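Section 3.1 - Work completed
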Amino acid sequence: MKSIFLFFLGPAAAAFMLTTAGCGTKQTYFVVEPSPLNNIRVYYAISTNTVMTMDFLGTGYCVMTRGETPAAVNPFSLQPHAVRETRRELTPEMVNAIFQSLVREGVCDKEPKDPRPFEPPYVSIYGSIQNTRFNRVSRLPVFLEMASWMAALFEHEQPGRHAPKPR
């Protein structure tokens, strides 16, 4: 029925109807229900020398790893002195609010290709929320601001471990 209707309208009207029917850029929004299966990993490159990863689990457990070299995000690094790891326990409601704000800002949406996606500052966010998997690399100000806000959650906590300084 739809194809017959589009045949009679002509190509311009058909193209308009297909783009307005959801064949264009799709915006994904849903209400995030609390679940221990929800998780995200945020890789935040502030500059070429300062990088951090932040893991948020639906249970409230959070870990931030920060360093001045790429070894900060490599768990098998041979330079453990370059890494600082901070652990924090948030309430599941707080972590769920973080997940909901990411969904609201469009972390699950498709983004136009950036010609320089890995030029600092940038943020890479991937994970699974409500069984919706996503992987997004972005230099949009909204995601950079959210990553710096998430990093601020770890500022006043005692670090989980410090590697010994080299002699």
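Second construct:
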Amino acid sequence: MVRIKKPFLCGIIIFFMISPLFVSISVRACDDCVGEVENGPYVELDTFPVDLDLLFWEDQPSVKAENLEKLENGTGGWMLTPWGGHFISNHVEGADKWYFYCGRPLEIIAPIGGEVKDYEVSDGTHTNILGHDVIIDTKLVIDIGDKCTIQFSHLTILASVHEQVKDKRHTFSKGDLLGFPTEWDEDLVTIDFHYQYKDENICPYVALSPELQTNVSEKFDLQYESAKLGGVYPESKLCNDYDISIKESIWGVWKYDSGPYDSSISRTNPLGFQPGVFTLLNRNLTNPDTFWRDLVTPSKNLTEDTIGMFTDGNGDQVSGYDKIGYAMVENVEGDHLQGILRLTTVHHDAWGFNTSVYMRYSLDLNGDKLKDDELRVEYFNSLSEAQSGFTPEGEIYYKRFTGFLTWADLQIYIIIGSIGLGVILIGTVILVVLRIRKKHKSK
């Protein structure tokens, strides 16, 4: 029988007694990304990062009408996208940002003063926009105080601003010209805008001044009315729920854990691969005002058989995996823990349009927390194959995606780990000292 010395045991006990105090600090301040912060100490913005009238093409009514018509036809057209949506961009895990679909090189300004917190260059290509020397595709994070930051992703930054911020030591003033959106092609000129509180992305709307909220709402409502006519948008509100997980169910966002693609998928960033993530959105969490049309047969309305929406990742292709894309979800058999779903594809991906894919699933609830859930899935061409059970070469295991690790979380983990290591080291030192004393006394 192995005996544990008292000093070492005391150290372990002390660590586990005090660790919950520190773990509680890492609980995110804004679980629903909006509610708590509405009454929280955020820094107010009374200026928008881009001219709203130009963003919504008020100077060119014909272009504005074309975009709204696209929304009515179900083919896009968003100028300001809904925040938090999982079926609105390539981020199927949820777009915790606003996209400005500018369609042209509009000026991007600092809506408030602040200091550079982070800066990264993704592309680095120099070009010229409206007479300005610029650098394509950068990320700029500005600390605006009181634990709040704003972030621009895919910012084509002024070369002069790049020189100021490359060492991450610069203070901006409200209204400073930062650059322009990035032009991916002639029809796609965009930029991402994040508002962060305690390193958590929240819907920027809650941080806007009342006057600016009114202005943004009036502009967005034009899109919303067109989206209602389109009827194909599951998530269409100005601020949507980022967390769509439903406890003790398969609904939510799932990231790859293990399976036949272990050698192809990065364990540090599984979301960057097509089979690395998928989303199941329960229909009860969709907006019936803008999601009522059958996506395969647009002349028909959705029936009660459609219980949700599915999509898998938009990242890198993986050999052996056929991307499914957007699909309407119907229940074939089973319950909340195991069964078979029918996915009817609505995009022309590897499975083709209007194809039935049968997903066999089995959910293991390994604890009280959502992050403990494990989901086993496999896709089949026919119902009979799916009913035959999982196969060793096809089954894939997923864990719930509960958000990205923030810097604040990482700091807490480092603190906890350091304290734990320190306590263990102290216990070990005490044990060694006591052994030495014991030897001396025995002499």
